[in-house]
Amino acid sequence: MVSSSSDHNTQFQSSPPLMANRHFSRTTSKSFSDLFIYVGGSLVALLLVWALWSFSSPAPDPNTFPTTFIKPSETEPVKLQDFNINFKQDSSVPTFYDDPTLTYTVGSPLKNWDEKRSTWLKHHPSFAAGAKERILMITGSQSTPCRNPMGDHLLLRFFKNKVDYCRIHGYDIFYNNVLLQPKMFTFWAKIPAVRAAMVAHPEAEWIWWVDSDAAITDMDFKLPLSRYKDHNLVVHGWSKLIYDKKSWTSLNAGVFLIRNCQWSLDFMEVWASMGPQNPNYEKWGATLRTTFKDKIFPESDDQSGLVYLLLHEKDTWGKKIYVEGEYYFEGYWLEIVEDLENTTRKYNDIEKGVRELRRRHAEKVSEHYSEIWKEHLKDAGNGKEGWRRPFITHFTGCQPCSGDHNMMYSRQTCWGAMEIALNFADNQVLRNFGFVHNSLSDSSRVSPLPFDYPASEIM
Ligand SMILES: *[C@@H]1O[C@H](CO)[C@@H](O)[C@H](O)[C@H]1NC(C)=O
């Protein structure tokens, strides 16, 4: 349990307050203006022409489409998916980026985003294919070194884990380590980061926030996006605990999937308005504490805020929020880590019986083998009762960076469990590089895998 206001961050991955980084903003605005002069110089004539009619006629003209993308051959129709993404071409037609009033910041609402995004996609057709499934993962940590001497090392390993997952599945990833809204520190910092990422990545349908202290422990598992087709926000939680128990821990706000759309921008404005940058911050703290009997610390926090919106503005927001409780969209490490040895053994036993599953392959075609695995995981079950690999193991309360772990666990318990989970995940990656950790607790030593492992034994 959270024991006092001073350790209220223990339920979250947090970063300490910091001042706005003046150097950073100065250099950024300088390079923006340089860029503007450069682009402006070369395109000014075109922009003027387009500006004259393009604002009054939002329908894209086919002639404005880039001419550099590969043309489908006449004889063999090529599906849109076959186009390669063109990173070198930007449309000269003005887009929302050219609108001086558009911002990347929380607190300045953005309008007609769905239309703006889709217009951008129309002008960047190489990104349009597969756009509905495109995911950008965001994670991050504080801008200064960790107080815990091994904190930065642990954060590096947690980040490596996410990079591994994103590489295998072709997702983009962004690591943020500045406060984009200086007052929105600790657990509030993710909202401004997601807000900015939506504008920076119109090609991505989903933004997936994953706390820095969460590890992906099933490298094969993919988010079941079709399940969320009618929803805009996915969080891990339990409806019963939300609506019946009114508990602030009835869901976890440390991992969420949010659609890049107007609804999400509107929702985040409302959600963020409970934060420390708002004059009503203290009032919100009191309201949330009254609402949730199990909330001990007085400050308004993003997780309680989210549960509050589900409880009190269910009609406005609830319909589009999917509370995922069926699998470990994120799971509590304490109920997961002790089983990971057995999970490894179970998976190895299955592979011993199925040659196809243990066939060596290029890392790039891993998803082919994940598909084959599905058949063998039909009865694996999910969560504590099942034996399927947990998708995300979240070290809630461990605070790798500050070292201010919850007093419920010892420092050793937290770090030891993190190593086991990270090595468990790393084994799935190293497998395709021909190696395996000597044990889940041994982060340093690995052994080469013999051909036909695990049917053959490691020497
Ligand atoms: C792991 O499996 C062994 C053998 O089946 C069993 O005795 C043990 O209780 C299991 N451990 C856990 C943590 O479930």
UniProtKB/TrEMBL annotation:
<comment type="similarity">
    <text>Belongs to the glycosyltransferase 34 family.</text>
</comment>
<keyword id="KW-0735">Signal-anchor</keyword>
<keyword id="KW-0328">Glycosyltransferase</keyword>
<keyword id="KW-0812">Transmembrane</keyword>
<keyword id="KW-0333">Golgi apparatus</keyword>
<dbReference type="InterPro" id="IPR008630">
    <property type="entry name" value="Glyco_trans_34"/>
</dbReference>
<dbReference type="GO" id="GO:0000139">
    <property type="term" value="C:Golgi membrane"/>
</dbReference>
<dbReference type="Pfam" id="PF05637">
    <property type="entry name" value="Glyco_transf_34"/>
</dbReference>
<keyword id="KW-0472">Membrane</keyword>
<keyword id="KW-1133">Transmembrane helix</keyword>
<protein>
    <recommendedName>
        <fullName>Glycosyltransferase 7</fullName>
    </recommendedName>
</protein>
<dbReference type="InterPro" id="IPR029044">
    <property type="entry name" value="Nucleotide-diphossugar_trans"/>
</dbReference>
<keyword id="KW-0325">Glycoprotein</keyword>
<dbReference type="GO" id="GO:0005802">
    <property type="term" value="C:trans-Golgi network"/>
</dbReference>
<keyword id="KW-0808">Transferase</keyword>
<dbReference type="GO" id="GO:0005768">
    <property type="term" value="C:endosome"/>
</dbReference>
<feature type="transmembrane region" description="Helical">
    <location>
        <begin position="35"/>
        <end position="53"/>
    </location>
</feature>
<dbReference type="GO" id="GO:0008378">
    <property type="term" value="F:galactosyltransferase activity"/>
</dbReference>
